[in-house]
């Protein structure tokens, strides 16, 4: 009989880490948002979207709560940088969800999906 490897739960992994003396760092929603935002901004930079002078003025009135929450979540304090990050996120977002929904009904019901 073969042994099946088990994947430790998060709690078990934390206990094992604590026993080994390593520090445990929990990833918060803010850390996660900053990480993905950093990746988006890096990609925008690589694609040249952030190059050039900053001459285009973009204005808008936003609800205070929305701006405060976005700043808290991203760690960005500048309104201009917040807008830049939001626009980069929009410019680089993929359309996978839309594409996936558009595929509904395109697979023939007669297609044999059994192995």
Write out key terms for the chains shown:
single chain, mainly alpha, 0% strand, disordered N terminus
Radius of gyration: 22 Å
Average of the residue pLDDT scores: 79
Helix content: 40-55%
What's the total number of strands?
Answer: 0
**Main sheet attributes: strand count, strand direction, barrel closure:** none
Category by helix and strand content: mainly alpha
What overall geometry do the principal axes of the alpha carbons give? elongated
Low-confidence runs (pLDDT<50, min 5 residues)? Answer: 1-6, 20-28
Total helices: the number is 5
End-to-end distance, in Å?
25 Å
Question: What is the chain-wise order of helices and strands?
Answer: HHHHH
Strand content: under 5%
Please give a quick description of this structure:
The chain has 115 residues and is mainly α. It has helices at residues 10-20, 29-46, 64-74, 79-92, 96-102.
List the helices and strands and how they pair.
Blueprint: H1 10-20, H2 29-46, H3 64-74, H4 79-92, H5 96-102
Describe the overall structure.
It is a single chain. The protein has 5 helices and no strands. With 115 residues, it is mainly alpha-helical. It has a domain at 26-50 and 62-95. α2 packs across α4. The relative contact order is 0.10. Residues 1-6 and 20-28 have low confidence and may be disordered.
